[in-house]
Amino acid sequence: MNVLFLTLLDFSDLKEKGIYTDLMKEFVDNNHNVYIISPIEKRKNVATKIIKKDNYQILKLQIGNVQKTNMVEKGISTLLLENEFVKGIKQYFSKVKFDLVIYSTPPITLRKAVDFVKRRDNAVSYLLLKDIFPQNAVDLGIITKKGFKKLIYSYFRYKEINLYKISDYIGCMSQANVEFITKNNKSIIENKVIEICPNTITPSPPIKNDKNRIRKKYKIPTNKTVFIYGGNLGKPQGIDFLIDCINANKNNEKVYFVIVGSGTEYQKLRDFLNINKLTNIKLISQLPKTEYELLASSCDVGLIFLDYRFSIPNFPSRILSYMQASMPILAATDTSTDMGKIIEEGNFGFWCYSKDVNSFTEKIELLCDKEIVTSMGINSRLFLEKNYTSKHSYEIIMKHFN
Asked: Is the pLDDT score of 67 beyond 80?
């Protein structure tokens, strides 16, 4: 079967670990011919090219700048995406008849490219729903459904609806996602399969390392319970609550926080730490993926933060790296997501509402117990292997063809 995957993720080899590269590797390993469009932004000064491997090809399509740029350039580049993808398919994959086209949100602006492949090749379309936009931006007050910004909301809502309309199958991250999409798009989803197709990876073998040596490298205490957060530091993570939680535990001599990431709210966190001179936290702007995984494997508990205002059920993929490292999870989120329910029912961590600092602190105390950390860590890895491997998501998609 010829499979086309459309993404904004910039990668050049399926050996690069991630939820999408691991899934495409699963298709390759099952003898499908995989074609990928993985764009590269103009600011990197790399011309469009094809990378050919044994059973797959990656089209490195030059597009406009959509990250680390101003809002005007980002907006224009985003609007031009679908036409650039169509042009790339016509120019580089004109002789390939695709059976299946897979794509993810974000973005929601690839409808034309998906529609083109469906019409040209009579291909089946599968949407991996990882982001519910523009409602998530409304939740955070970035855009509104009133006034001038209503025009922005209406435009992107139109694009979202049309993406759902051309999708034969919609794979959601969890049951709460399925219910949200079904409830809020009743007129669209008739005759469509809306199912759970969660974030997944191909788990690496447990990393065997000297935890004390790695902690000493980063000047992290070896005699404390270390809580790590790795990922984006932006508005969706509710950084104000993260700061409140760190501040509430600044005198707890049993705990140490490690924050690894970057984003629009990074400086706010950095400024808070510089002013308050806390001694039980380390903030690291960025690390290469392999180094981050080594660092994470030397920590004890993985942290998830989501802004309390979300009405959409998010399910951040960073939880998978914690589970891979056999770490229990402490998730501080909104009440819309079912992540906390899954974590607690699976007995591999705890949940609290991301406005309740006292509850967060109580869970911190529970996770200072080494026996709890060990048992929940084992459960975390087992839950990953049972439910969140790339093989699972591959089989969910392929059952519609068998």
From this structure: no
HSE of 206, CA atoms in CB hemisphere, 13 A: 16
Q: Is the pLDDT of residue 73 over 90?
A: no
Query: pLDDT-based confidence at 287, cuts 50/70/90?
Result: confident
| Shared-domain flag, residues 270 and 136 | no
Q: Are residues 72 and 60 in the same domain?
A: yes
Taking all residues of the chain, what is their mean pLDDT, rounded to a whole number? 91
Q: How many CA atoms lie within 13 A of 110 on its CB side?
A: 26
Domain count, the chain: 2
| Residues in CB range of 25: below 8 A, 6 or more apart | 14, 202, 390
Asked if residue 337 has pLDDT above 90, the reply is: yes
User: Could you give the CA distance from residue 73 to residue 64 in angstroms, rounded to a whole number?
Assistant: 8
Residue 206 placed within a domain: no
* Domain at 134, CATH number: 3.40.50.2000
Please tell me whether residues 39 and 142 are part of one structural domain. yes
CA distance 326 to 375: 9
